[in-house]
Amino acid sequence: MSHRPSVSLDRKQSFFLFATDLTLSTDLVRIDYRHTHLNPMKARYQYRIYPTDQQKRLLSQLFGCVRVVWNDTLAYCQELYRQGEKKPKYTELSKRLTQVKKTEERRWLTEVSSIPLQQSLRDLETAYSNFFTSCKGERKGKKVKPPKFKKRKSKQSARFTDNGFTVNQHCVTLAKIGDLRIVWSRPLPSKPSSVTVIKDASDRYFLSFVVEVQPEILPDNGESVGIDLGIATFATLSTGEKIDAPKPLKKRLKRLRKAQKNLSRKQKGSNRREKARKRVAKIHAKIKDTRTDFLQKLSTRVVRENQTIILEDLNTSGMVKNRKLSRAISDLGWRSFRDMLSAKSDKYGRDFRIISSWEPTSQRCSCCGNIGGKKALNIREWECLFCGTFHDRDVNAAINIKVAGGQSETLNGRGGKCKTSVKEASSREASTVRLSSRPKPNRRSFN
Which residues form the Probable transposase IS891/IS1136/IS1341 domain (predicted)? Predict the structure, then answer.
């Protein structure tokens, strides 16, 4: 009896099928496909800016006003909730903001542009909408928590719509801020619909534009790759290549500890404490930039070199609960790498597939499909007792990931050649019949 994959008609199609390879003969595999569409895609282009001292004061005032509008409105909504009333809609909150500006206590809100203040209300509306949708169980992923109050020391931002800014050759003009000098590291692909001015914890300023980009469909080169993510080696490809991560946190951990220890000894509210805080923030920014640069370059290379990319769905949030591995896992950025591969696959017309984390990719022999007992993490190389093949643990896992993604050229359960494309399975193709007449080994002997 043949098994038909169930197909959903959305952009992210999911296929459920029995694998045609002998190594996956008894396992149900979930494969996610993301097909590139020809419609324009939304993207963010971020640039560094260098405001003057006067502009820094104006931006600081703007950030403060945006933060006050968010916190005041959030406190107002929470008070209504305690009284048993429903949360007001955006239109009601916007009218309330107009009335608040006329009061003596909040009259200084009129000194900045009204556009970022209105956008702050829209952001709060979106945050509440995501929270309510998550509570109803209609939102995928983790449960979304309710909105929180914003702090002055954290990352600050303010968003302008298209009627609040002008893009020039050497600067960007913001309403009631002036001309901000900008370094165009790359040209904008289209007219931006909005721009967000950002100040990070290390006092760096950026402009982030939302633009439309047309997908650049790369020619199909027929290549496919399975990627096994690890700690000692960041990524092992099914081709046998191993890629090491820079591990920026590990390299700067001693310097970071010293800076944090110095910060803890400073008196709260003093200028020296603020300087010490900036030193810690700069180290964190350097760590983040180093990690992001590595992941961006690696993901671009993988997407350009392969038509099909298969990755394993790792439970990163559960793995970081291990106190012995949490710092090392957080330093690698597995989830960021996966998101980059997904976004760039959509942009360049590649197939990005995710297989189930329950697949025994590290335990199964990629040659004969035999699972010879559980292999602990400290076993990096092993020999299959069924076919005698010697395996590197990571390379073997990467090959199995590629096979689980439907990219196998080995023999299936009926002795036929597996196709690289996903098709309907033929009769008994997912059977457990072995190709060899060799007797089945006793699994108890491997324990």
Answer: 208-322
pLDDT digits (tens, 9 = 90+) for 125-138: 999 999 999 999 88
Contact 209, 45 (CB under 8 A): yes
Chain segment 259-268, per-residue pLDDT in tens? 999 999 999 9
Answer whether 347's CB lies under 8 Å from 215's CB: yes
Which domain does 318 fall in, by range?
1-38+220-238+307-447
Question: Does residue 296 form part of some domain?
Answer: no
Q: Evaluate whether residue 270 is within a structural domain.
A: no
Active-site annotation holder among 21, 331, 346, 394: 394
The active-site residue, picked from 228, 331, 346, 359, is: 228
Cα dihedral 368, 370, 372, 377, rounded to 10, equals 80
Contact 143, 136 (CB under 8 A): no
Last residue of a domain, one of 213, 228, 249: 213
429 is catalytic: no
* Known active-site residue 220: no
Look at the chain and report how many structural domains it folds into.
2
Residue of 441, 436, 433 lying closest to 386 (CA atoms): 441
116 and 168 both lie in a single domain:
yes
Catalytic residue among 21, 125, 312, 331: 312
Indicate if 110 and 16 belong to the same structural domain: no
Is there a domain that residue 274 lies in?
A: no
Contact status, residue 41 vs residue 431, Cβ threshold 8 Å: no
Note whether 423 and 32 are within 8 A (CB): no
Q: Does the pLDDT at position 445 exceed 50?
A: no
Q: Any catalytic annotation for residue 104?
A: no
